[in-house]
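Shipment paperwork, digital attachment
Item: protein structure file
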Amino acid sequence: MARYRLRFVLQEFDLPRGVTVIGRSVDAHLTIEDPLVSRKHARMVVSGTGAHIEDLGSRNGVKVNGAAIVRPTPLRNGDRVRIGTQELVFCEVDETGRRSHSRTTGQLRLCSQCRQPYPREMFACPACEATEQTDDEMLTATGLGSSHSWTIQLFVEALERALRLGRVVDAEKLARRATSQVDEVIATSGTVDLGSLAALALQIVETTVATGNPEWALWVQDVYARCEQVPPPAIIERLLAAASIHPEAVRGGVGG
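Attachment content:
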């Protein structure tokens, strides 16, 4: 019988025969500490005929190769599974435990150090941790596109929910992860989808309003400066509202 593994950042997780539950709970077989991952988010089932993945009614869903799944979905060697903000790669291994050749899907880069392909949205190569990237060697599969906007949208929804429920500690954790994600995207590609950025920036400013921490409003001003863009009027309005409560949250010249 074939053997399978999940590659997750710098780790590999052997998939035993039977059910493997993935989620945020410590009771899950594979625990992912991510606010966008449900306690029991998904399960992978390995049998004598192959493997498939099922969404366990999670809040944010499961994607395989960029497409949201609505029913048990078979997995093939090299498939990319998105759970929360995390990407896992499903791998088939031979009898010696070595990975079989994986097909590439989505948008990938070739690492300039070890020459291994990895997702464009990752800041560093998961194989050797090198940060040098080569745009001219980006590999693109048709029909999938970038997952940046989808990931940012998940952060927007989670932040809005946390703020609405008054869960300011969770909101700050989400804000930190979301801003780091955008910073990495800008560092690797030099740009970010402005519509997604605007939706996120609005919630990030609201985090300053709710927590009193000026860090978040200052990040919004900085990220627009790095993108050489002026924040949309709705964001400027909320920045000024934040400044009325926390004057140190806004630098001079907002919207100027």
